[in-house]
Design goal:
alpha/beta, 10 helices, 9 strands, globular
């Protein structure tokens, strides 16, 4: 699938931090069981790549991607781990060049209209607005829709249960990213039922 097709699979993309490898599969399964199939595992811990591999092998229906890509070699490493897409907090020349050497859908991060325009010039139509609230949130997205109506966004950062629907109502928002559906307290406590319920609540709120 292309990146826009992946983003259209789920209204919320859980942003996941895996501290202990044994948490990976049950956490991913709980989210998928709750109705959220597109998962972003961030490269913020030493076990992240192995977690992506285990999720890709064990969790039917999961579309697992790699987040916090900041170095060019991580694209190939992500493919080898089984990632279906890659997300970065920004877009550098080095990352841009590396992304073009691999067959891996890529969602780069942007913060300003100039960065959106630069990404557009390089052929990107889907971007991560990050950190979304600090970048201007809903107001920024509304303002960018006028001059750049063809661009779609996955805003991430400062989005939670209280405001995600407001973001999803915008015509240029394909989905949102957030960690509220997999809070660290529930992950550390292995409360997979709570996480499934939080994911299910997202689906219920949109009906």
């Amino acid at each position: 699938m292309k990146i826009d097709e992946i983003l259209n699979q789920s209204p919320v993309v859980p942003v996941i931090v895996i501290d202990q490898l044994e948490q990976a599969v049950p956490l991913a399964q709980a989210l998928v069981d709750g109705g959220l199939s597109v998962l972003e595992v961030t490269l913020r811990t030493d076990v992240a790549m192995q977690a992506i591999h285990e999720i890709s092998q064990a969790v039917t229906g999961a579309i697992v991607g790699v987040g916090t890509v900041t170095r060019p070699e991580q694209f190939q490493q992500s493919i080898e781990a089984g990632a279906r897409f890659a997300v970065s907090p920004g877009l550098t020349d080095t990352l841009l060049a590396a992304s073009r050497t691999v067959d891996l859908p890529f969602l780069p991060g942007v913060f300003s209209p100039s960065e959106v325009m630069r990404a557009h010039e390089h052929g990107f139509k889907a971007l991560k607005l990050f950190p979304a609230q600090q970048a201007g949130g809903i107001g920024m997205l509304k303002a960018m829709h006028g001059p750049l109506p063809e661009m779609k966004f996955c805003p991430t950062g400062g989005i939670g249960a209280e405001n995600f629907i407001d973001f999803l109502k915008l015509p240029n928002v394909a989905c949102v990213g957030g960690s509220w559906v997999c809070p660290s307290s529930a992950v550390q406590g292995q409360d997979w039922d709570q996480i499934s319920q939080l994911a299910s609540d997202v689906r219920s709120a949109l009906q």
